Amino acid sequence: QVRLVESGGGLVQAGGSLRLSCAASGIIFNINRMSWYRQAPGKQRELVAAIASDGITDYAYSVKGRFTISRDNAKNMVYLQMNSLTPEDTAVYYCAAQRLTVDGWNGNWGQGTMVTVSS
User: Fold this and answer.
1) CA distances from residue 45 to 28, 29, 58 in whole angstroms, order as listed
2) What pLDDT, in 10s, does the model give residues 53-80?
């Protein structure tokens, strides 16, 4: 079991930046990727960014060039640097530790951290 704790959310003006952090603990040796998802009010949860165990990253089209995912394996930390934020980025952001199975990506989730971008 993996425990994930997110931090770094808050209120920021459009054009500003935030850095989210995710601290992972527990059994993490078989995790294939670490991801950030978000869920805006009334919308489905969506993948924002992911970083595989080999360091390869993937981003949602809407955040490419603005967000950067990174990891510090020694500290069991994952980060999401968010720049040039817009009100459309307002959402609860979740960290996920995922394994690829026959049913797709499965794993553990954090409790989420709220990001609010004001116009």
Assistant:
1) 23, 26, 16
2) 999 999 999 999 999 999 998 999 999 9
